[in-house]
Amino acid sequence: MSIQIGQQAPDFTLRDTEKNKVTLSEQRGRNVLLLFYPLAFTSTCTRELCSVRDNLAFYNNANAQVYGISVDSLYANGKFKEEQGLNFPLLSDFNKEVSTAYDTIYETFSNDMKGVSKRSAFVIDKEGIVRYAEVLEDAGKVPDFEAINACLEGLR
Questions:
Q1: Which pLDDT does position 54 carry in this prediction?
Q2: How many domains in the chain?
Q3: Where in the sequence is the domain holding 133, given as residue range(s)?
Q4: Does pTM surpass 0.85?
Q5: Structural Rg of the chain based on CA atoms
Q6: Residue numbers annotated as active site
Q7: Would you call 44 exposed, middle or buried from its count of C-beta atoms within 10 A (0-12, 13-18, 19+)?
């Protein structure tokens, strides 16, 4: 079932590229932007996450913690983060549990890969409520950052 605006965000714990555990419910008190992306090192994922990197001051001013999430290993995410100079955490959903819980997973992706995260964006407010949800079927498109940023502005 897809995530609906106004519902409690499904809680999760994933590891970042430094092997630290990150738990969504521990982020209460600040807004969170979850950006699910299909695969590290691909052109659209790189463009999307580098755009966030270049505009991180906006998210910091909106009291929003940004997390990139993919089914890549924490090691692949670590190399991707390093090469692109990403200044926010990337989380590994290698076991596909969070992508499944957020209903943002391809049954079959390109080249017959199964269980790859769909490009998606979720804004979660300080109380853990979903305030924005966008799941894209076309991995070549990026989320509507104007709408995401307007949502975050409204949560200030």
A1: 96
A2: 1
A3: 13-154
A4: yes
A5: 14
A6: 45
A7: middle
